[in-house]
Amino acid sequence: MKFQYTARTKQGELQTGFVESVNREAAVNILVGHDLFVLSVTAAEAPKWYEPFVNLLNRVKPNDLMIFTRQFATLLEAKISLGDSLRNLYRQTHNSILKEVISDITSDVDSGLLLSQALEKHSNIFSQFYVSMVRSAEVTGRLEEVVGFMADYLEKEVGLLGRVRAALIYPAVIVALFVVVVGIMIGVVFPQLEPVFAESNVQLPLVTQILLGTGNFVAQWWLALLIVLVVFAMILYDYLQTAEGKIVVDELRVRMPVLGELYKKVYVARFAESSAVLIRGGIPIAQALEISGHTIGSIIYRDVLHEVAEAVRGGQLMSQALAEHEEYFPPLVHQMVSVGESTGKLEALLSRIGAFYTRDVDTMVGNLVDLIQPALMVVIGILVGLLFAAVLLPIYNLAQSF
Q1: 239-255 confidence digits (pLDDT tens)
Q2: Alpha-carbon distance 267 to 45, whole Å?
């Protein structure tokens, strides 16, 4: 997306022009990275309606991003410079989209931009969590350590995603076949049987009445239903892109049964790992908390950590401030932080918290994956039974009437 900007150089000269970026915030970061004092940044053109679909097609698979990050971490650990590492990655990458992105990042870094600013221009590939972790590493000078952490994190994420997909393939096929069968029954079979049932005055079960009514309604109003669904999807998508919509999504994530606990543990693990890296790098605790809030990927946790940071600046211990938010940070967190504060090993205890909740998330996801297949099969079995009952019971009643 193109933005028009007005800025002043360090010498006070007025400068205007255009800058390409994914959003306004990223455009401002690019200009600041060029040592400009930004006066105004406005969209030069409205985003095209098809841009979300283009971004969906031009995506990089999680596995490709994982391999890129692991290779990046290996090169940095070998003490190869940032620019040379990126050029080596360009030669080693086979994914054409990612290859082009690496070329853009290399050019931006060579021109003076920070790595986080270069990554932020490609937010459809590098998540907010990824960019924020790199930005925190630039503050502490621990880029090698953070990229290694991100490689480990992505490997675990890809592994969990693979397990979930493998567990869902068979149920997904069954659900798809069930939907096809229901469509055939409602659209073909029931319309042919309805006149027979009507002539014989057979008492229809409630399930049969519901399916017949649904079939007739869909047959008459399918076009209107399609339009309503499309309009609703577009309105919902636009709402979820707003600040209020993102807050609503975050609230739903942490308040959902079972999954809410999973999300909380993921956020706590991210908070602990990023805070440990920052504090180990010499960043003051309050500032480390604020930076961690932006790396977690949750607006709710970001605001809570800002409150904790302000409490720490006011003289309160970090453990005491976290204890006031037990809804988001379990008692174990502030208890271990308290131990770290008393022993002078806060960053070590935070690393242990991160490792503990990461293992907890792995276990919880594994248990959920193991439960998905049997739970879905039970639900589908009940629905299939109801479907056949809706067909066979009226036929049985009809046979009894003769």
Answers
A1: 887 878 888 888 888 88
A2: 36
